[in-house]
Amino acid sequence: MLEIVTFGSEILNKKAEPVAEIGSEVRTLAEGMFDAMDRGRGVGLAAPQVGSSLKVFVTNIEGDQKRVFINPEIVLTSQEQVEYEEGCLSLPRLYLDVKRPESVRIQAWNERGRPFTIEAGGFLARVMLHEYDHLEGLLFIDRLPPAKREKALAQYRKLSKG
Ligand code: ZN
Fold first, then answer.
1. How far is the CA of 133 from the centre of ligand 1 (A)?
2. Within a domain: residue 5?
């Protein structure tokens, strides 16, 4: 069973490495990630969050199929930015509004080694952008202006003590 890595762990600040071969190893990783995400009632999870520095993330949002993204690349983002509340299994119980592009086009490979391109707006775009950031070593609080980020961290420290 894969455990979720929380804030303060160095792997969350590290850029993930590309997956060299899409085989049973990465499929097992993705399965474990879905399992860890379901246990945490999350809608997306990136490999560094389970201690694996590989370019893999998964999503499972209501009304959409389960998706595995291997070696994803952002092809395009919209000029339009929107603010929406986010949380993260690596920063439990912290929820904050974050500004991001409204829509995104991502190119990736699925767990069977097939390339695909997905263009989405709204909640799916939000989740994909959040998870993609994890592969760049960025957390959602890193998308906040510095003063707000400090405030968020203080709030998180309080939450994780209680
Ligand atoms: Zn997250």
1. 8
2. no
Residue 3 lies in a domain: no
pLDDT tens digits for the chain (162 residues)?
A: 999 999 999 999 999 999 999 999 999 999 999 999 999 999 999 999 999 999 999 999 999 999 999 999 999 999 999 999 999 999 999 999 999 999 999 999 999 999 999 999 999 999 999 999 999 999 999 999 999 999 999 999 999 886
Residue 111 is a catalytic residue: no
For residue 117, what are the domain limits? 10-161
How many Å lie between the centroid of ligand 1 and the Cα of residue 46? 7
Whether residue 134 lies inside any domain: the answer is yes
The CATH number assigned to the domain holding 137 equals 3.90.45.10
pTM of the complete model: 0.97
Q: Which of 31, 131, 136, 150 is catalytic?
A: 131
**Phi and psi, residue 114, nearest 5°:** -95, 130
Measure the CA–CA gap between 41 and 159, rounded to whole angstroms: 18
Q: What's the chain's length in residues?
A: 162
* Domains contained in the chain, number: 1
